Amino acid sequence: MNTEDTLIISCPTILTFDEAAPRAEAVVVGGGVIRAVGTLEEARAFAPVGREIRLEEGALLPGFIDSHSHLSLYAQCRSQFYCDTAYGTVAKLTEAFRAYADARPGEAWLLGYCYDDTGMGEPRHLTRHDLDAVCADRPVFVSHITSHMGYGNTEALRRLGITADLRVEGGSIALGEDGRPEGLLRENAYFEAFRKIPACPPESLPGAIERAVADYNRAGFTAFQDGGIGLGPGAHAILRAYNDLARQGRLNARGYLHFMPPLMDELLETGVWNLPVSDHLYYGGVKSFADGSIQSLTAVLGAPYACRPGFCGDEVASPRSIADLIGRYHRLGVPVAFHANGDAAIEYVTRGFEEALAACPRKVPGHMIIHTQMASDDQLARLHACGVTPTFFVRHVNVWGERHVNIFLGEERAARLDPCGSCVRLGIPFALHVDSPVQPVDAIRSIHTAVNRTTSAGRVLGPDQRVSTLHALRAYTADAARCAALQGRIGRIAPGLFADFVQLSADPLATPPEALEKLSVLRTICGGRVVYEA
């Protein structure tokens, strides 16, 4: 290669996450790829006429990989009304939402997101009457923070065809004392309604996705999973937008996309699923749901919810349908990403993978189980034996930990939420994710939570599930790459991998655990190109 086209990057600390050489002084980059890693002297010998950049502070790491979120949904939510729990009461929230609506007289649908009922000072669900107060003559629709429930005003319910006698398999419609829909839609009732809401205009999507990717870059991410395209409206337009951005060189992070089964089947039928798109865009696999969320009481548990004796959650999918879906796509060599929160749902998924492997003993890189909140050690070990990587939404511990203790699960079960420590003891690689738009795009706070496990009240929830900073970092780098089946391309600083880096303000391995959240991202580099600089 022509070393005139190379760049030597040196930094006081370079953490490679490559077992052969875990630390380095310099990296040689050429053509968007890492060419050499070692001492500064070795780098200069490899590229004697290469340009040099000296990063004078902090630490250089592989770019962060978000193993699960919904970037295209987050891209659209950025312009919607954010239902911040800081409003405290429903009255104050709807007043602010009404001001938002008044400022947008031309918007046909008024959309809000991230309403968190148990996080409000007045902990209750929204009703159609609450949202009628926002605007009565236009449809108003709000997604719950879990994205497993939603709320419509009277006009929205009318346009969506929500009636008292409507039955939706795997979902429910709350009825008021008058026997009419109250506004609350759960699980498949919510998803079916959500897909009917007019999507973001196709011409606006590329710009919206670009701006969302910039937020991910700002947080140090150079790769992300978009989990479940086809779950919401405008799936084909989203796919076109991603392809256009990638082909135009405007996708400043590497996206690997997971599709809901109908869209996945369409891609398989047309033969484009496993065709290369670009180094910045990959078609990852199929996504499906084994249950909902603990906070919406739709996760499927092995024992009843603490707040509802005798109730273990409504199943959104049967164990047989879960196993059939896993088996069908596994036989085709398609990576399967299954959402499962409750321990019973995790058991359904675990048995499904075991059955699939027994019937078709092939390796399919990229199988993963998403959230895995209440997994037992036995389930983790069995999933690992099937080649399935768990990815944990560990921010649950900090954001909802107190509520899991006091409302949903009780202390004993809540202490095992997101059992990262169990994975370390069992020798099982795991990943972490931010799950935006459910939570802000922020790897550092997620790493801090995995290491410290402090709740919003300051208590340590499940101290034996804490992990070292090194393991938490691996869960956003080398081990997260497993979820994308891209271990040979991203996640480490080693020759032949993409030149994707994040520069942090200090060496995280030398930072006290309680101070990890104070780290900041100084620079993000994707393919050897700076995509964010503080």
UniProtKB/TrEMBL annotation:
Q: Which domain of life is it from?
A: Bacteria
Question: Where would I find the Amidohydrolase domain in this sequence?
Answer: 53-532
Which GO MF term does the entry hold, naming one?
hydrolase activity, acting on carbon-nitrogen (but not peptide) bonds
Coiled coil, from the record: none
As given in the record, the signal peptide range reads: none
Quote the PANTHER family the UniProt record gives.
IMIDAZOLONEPROPIONASE, PROTEIN LONG AFTER FAR-RED 3
Protein name according to UniProt: Amidohydrolase
Q: Whose protein is this, by species?
A: Candidatus Bilophila faecipullorum
Source lineage = Bacteria, Pseudomonadati, Thermodesulfobacteriota, Desulfovibrionia, Desulfovibrionales
